[in-house]
Design goal:
Order of helices and strands: HHHEEHEHEHEHEEHH
Structural class: alpha/beta
CATH topology: Glycerol-3-phosphate (1)-acyltransferase
Radius of gyration: 18 Å
Strand order of the largest sheet: 1-7-6-2-5-3-4
CATH superfamily: Glycerol-3-phosphate (1)-acyltransferase
CATH class: Alpha Beta
CATH architecture: 3-Layer(aba) Sandwich
Number of domains: 1
Shape: globular
Number of strands: 7
Strand content: 5-15%
Oligomer: single chain
Number of helices: 9
Length: 252
């Protein structure tokens, strides 16, 4: 449990001690929004790296060269752990907002930093508000801000399985005319969820697939884009699971 308390302490101390930084970022944003975007990214990346260090997590990153540096992208990944966001955010090359559940707005200071990072809050119980969130994501990517979404809609609690990928998640890339980057995360639940509430040292593999341009796909694939990308992530997942964690494969 010591590691759990250390991680919690790092997060709480950052949120409290960063209040002056939030004020400074608000002022900067009034005069220079791009500078605010870059500085918020750097500040939160620093904090997340301290969290990863405190958790004792090692990350093996594969395929980062597949992420275009000259355009915003839509990252699409499988989701098993709260640490998925921490582990992937420190690797983004440009300002990136994550699509989070609307309940996150209730967390003071944390929600302020999330807004600084262009995160979007999705109300899954309200279709109309959900559509507004997707349209906001379209505007973000058009303005050069990448978006990351977990199209399963929630954390999947069953090892080595995938919930259906919601096709609507991909509208951000389709309407914003940006590539989809499949993001396959393996073993992140070993950090925390597999032995809740303890945090253990673990190795996590993250692989970024080649960009997918929806406009270049045939009509049938575009119609079933969720299944298509889910298939790519599933294949990559079991490839890396077999390669790096062969002893932890569950029965399929």
């Amino acid at each position: 449990m010591i590691r759990f308390f250390v991680v919690c302490s790092v997060v709480i101390l950052f949120l409290i001690l960063s209040i002056p930084l939030l004020i400074a970022e608000w002022i900067i944003g009034k005069f220079n929004q791009p500078l605010k975007d870059r500085s918020s990214l750097a500040i939160v990346n620093w904090a997340f790296r301290r969290v990863i260090q405190a958790a004792g997590t090692k990350v093996i990153a594969i395929g980062e060269e597949n992420i275009p540096k000259d355009t915003a992208v839509l990252y699409v990944g499988n989701h098993r752990s709260y640490f998925d966001i921490v582990l992937t955010y420190v690797r983004v090359p440009r300002p990136t907002g994550y699509v989070a559940k609307i309940e996150m707005t209730k967390w003071p200071l944390l929600s302020n930093w999330m807004r600084n990072l262009h995160c979007l809050f999705l109300d899954r119980s309200n279709i109309r508000e959900g559509l507004k969130t997707i349209l906001a994501g379209v505007e973000k990517v058009k303005n050069g801000i990448s978006i990351c979404i977990f199209p399963e809609g929630t954390r999947n609690k069953v090892p080595d399985t995938f919930l259906p990928f919601h096709d609507g998640s991909f509208k951000i890339a389709e309407k914003g005319n940006v590539p989809v980057i499949p993001m396959t995360i393996v073993n992140s639940a070993a950090v925390f969820e597999d032995q809740f509430p303890r945090i253990k040292k673990a190795t996590v593999v993250i692989e970024y697939g080649k960009p997918i341009y929806i406009r270049d796909l045939d009509k049938e694939t575009r119609k079933n884009i969720g299944n298509y990308v889910s298939g790519i992530i599933s294949d990559t997942y079991f490839k890396n699971k077999t390669l790096y964690f062969p002893d932890t494969l569950s029965e399929k």
